[in-house]
Amino acid sequence: MTPQAAYDELIKQIKEISLLSSCGSVLGWEERTYMPRQGAGLRSDQLGLLAGMCHEKFTSPRIGELLAAAEASDLTKDPTSVAAVNIRETRHQYNRATKLPKELVEELTKTTSLAQGEWGIARKNSDFKHFLPWLEKVLGLTRKVADAYGWKGEPYNALLDGYEPGATVDEIERVFEPLRVDLVELLARIQKAPKKPDVSLIEREYNVELQRVFGEMVAAAIGFDFTAGRLDITTHPFCTGIGPGDTRITTRYNPRRFNDALFGIMHEAGHGLYEMGIDKKTHFGTPMGEAVSLGIHESQSRMWENQVGRSKEFWVYFLPQAQRIFRESLAGVSVDAFYGAINYVTPSYIRVEADECTYNLHILLRFELERAMVKGDLKPTDIPGEWNSRFKKYFGIDVDKDANGCLQDVHWSAGLIGYFPTYTLGNLFSAQFFGKAKADIPGLTQQFERGDFSKLLAWLRTNIHEHGQRYRARDLGQKVTGQPLSHKPLIDYLKGKYAEIYGI
Ligand code: ZN
């Protein structure tokens, strides 16, 4: 078999697996939006069957043979060619998928499914002791997973690689550490600031149906194509790129808070725009038709949510429109007052409700603790104490109960250890990319004042979306911005914003 024939068969096979897996995506989306509660058992069987079929097809020795035949050829000579990228990233996935013993996968699936239920009970009663044995079990299995993958430096690297391929804990820490120092200092200055925005105006009555209308209008204005996607309601908002021409986003509405749904929609639409911008018509089912990493994905959602959606220029255009829709709640509100209210900063317990300034402190705390746990430097039993003392140091407030502290996130019970840093990577990349877009596109933010987002979207498409997995996150960032990942662009952006709002 020629290398080209091997490559062609490889692509045919992985495209078929992706097609099968996309059926699971539709079912997964429906499970979280419309499925009646009693359908849960059947749905879990359906999804389990599909996942098992995909796994079996993908880990078959035939895929390994085809990869080996295609690798030893000219196809990989130019590392950024379509074939070389598809071969490199399929090899990466294949190695990860075949290294885990079946028994370990099964034990992990069973344990995390039970652990999530027990975590729910523990959180409800704020009872860490109830969760402790489960955390110990999940951690033990996760360490075995890291060992099975193999690692350099420390086992956390093997876990991180599953979400942010090629990233290492050392390079992340070099950026996270100065970020934390600067954020703690910035937060302290904001809290002592003489000027404070009036947050109450976004906590008025906002009719849910009108919020949907306004949210869809905003999503469409920034480029989300409703003939190739839709918006629905869920409990924990998400975006799923099912395939070419089909990207689903979700949100939830709070009738007494304007921010939750609107910025949630902009966030998920940002993920959606990335999915829509990848050339899936040509590359669906192959790495060239996939997003780079969770961090890069999050950079897209955060950019539309924050750099665009929480900018003053955006509201110069959209506030008058919002005022026509929410007549009573927004009557007489100025752009400055509104801009201040949506950017209000306050230390709070819950990560998912955090503002742009404190959000990353939540992530850095989790990253530090889970890394120490995986390394064996921190025992699960010591988590609440360590969490609370760091929280006091970073946020300046005491945690009142574990439900508001170490028990708030589902991640550890679900076995998602190594996932948290991708949220902050997303924020760092978003600031760095946006800075470069501003330098490349004259008058970019003034375009927002006219409701024009097409140039930013076109820039993102050419520089990021269309490449699929051509570059790893680190190289993509360097290539697009000419700089390595740094905490500076994010800190400078935040300092500039809060200097105006808080007069600091
Ligand atoms: Zn996101």
Tell me the β content: under 5%
CATH architecture of the largest domain: Orthogonal Bundle
CATH topology of the largest domain: Neurolysin, domain 3
The total count of helices amounts to 21
Alpha-carbon distance between the two ends:
68 Å
Mean pLDDT: 97
Q: Count all strands and give the number.
A: 3
What would you call the shape?
globular
The molecules bound to the chains, other than polymers, are: zinc ion
Structural class: mainly alpha
Query: Considering DSSP H and I runs of 4 or more, what fraction of the residues is helical?
Result: 55-70%
SSE string, helices as H and strands as E = HHHHHHHHHEEEHHHHHHHHHHHH
Classified by CATH, the class of the largest domain is Mainly Alpha
Structural domain tally: 2
Name the poorly predicted regions: none
| Backbone CA Rg | 23 Å
Major pleated sheet? 3 strands, mixed
Q: Widest sheet: strand order?
A: 1-3-2
Notes on the structure:
There is one protein chain. By secondary structure, the protein is mostly helical. The chain has 2 domains: 3-142; 169-502, Neurolysin, domain 3. The chain has 21 helices and 3 strands. A 3-stranded mixed sheet has the order 1-3-2, with helices on both faces. α8 packs parallel to α21 (488-502), α12 packs across α17 (421-440) and α17 crosses α21 (488-502). The longest helix has 29 residues, at 3-31. The radius of gyration is 23 Å and the shape is globular. It starts with a helix and ends with a helix. Zinc ion binds at residues 267, 271, 298, 301.
